[in-house]
Amino acid sequence: MGILDSLENNPALRSALGQLGAAVLPAVLNELLGSNNQGGLSAIVAKLQQAGFGDQVKSWLGNGHNLPISADQLRAVLGNDTVRQLAARYNIPVDKLGEILAQELPKAVDQASPQGHLPHTA
Predict the structure, then answer these.
(1) pLDDT tens digits for 75-105?
(2) d(CA 81, CA 85)
(3) What is the CATH code for 10-112?
(4) Where are the domains of the chain?
(5) CB-CB contact of 61 with 118 (8 Å)
(6) Using CA atoms, how far apart are residues 90 and 22, in angstroms rounded to an integer?
């Protein structure tokens, strides 16, 4: 086990990264969901549906349990360059940002769709 492995598995470091992610999460989501190059929340939802994640999206839009999406799946839909640029802009490791987005995007879609569908302005 190398020093990087021990740092990666260090609970204090993992906690600090989690706090960092929580601190910048609103800014990252706002930029991603309001981004002209991604087209906003509706466009991201459409991309996810086109990429075969319709069941997940349907669960996020509806009431009840949100089906998960992995960081890798989300990164594939959003594009590696987009995720890397966001990670660099907010000084968050790419893998950590992917995890945060995979956890928070379903919640964001769920909150933006209380009636089971996104508003036309999303």
Answers:
(1) 999 899 988 988 888 888 888 888 888 988 8
(2) 6
(3) 1.10.10.690
(4) 10-112
(5) yes
(6) 12
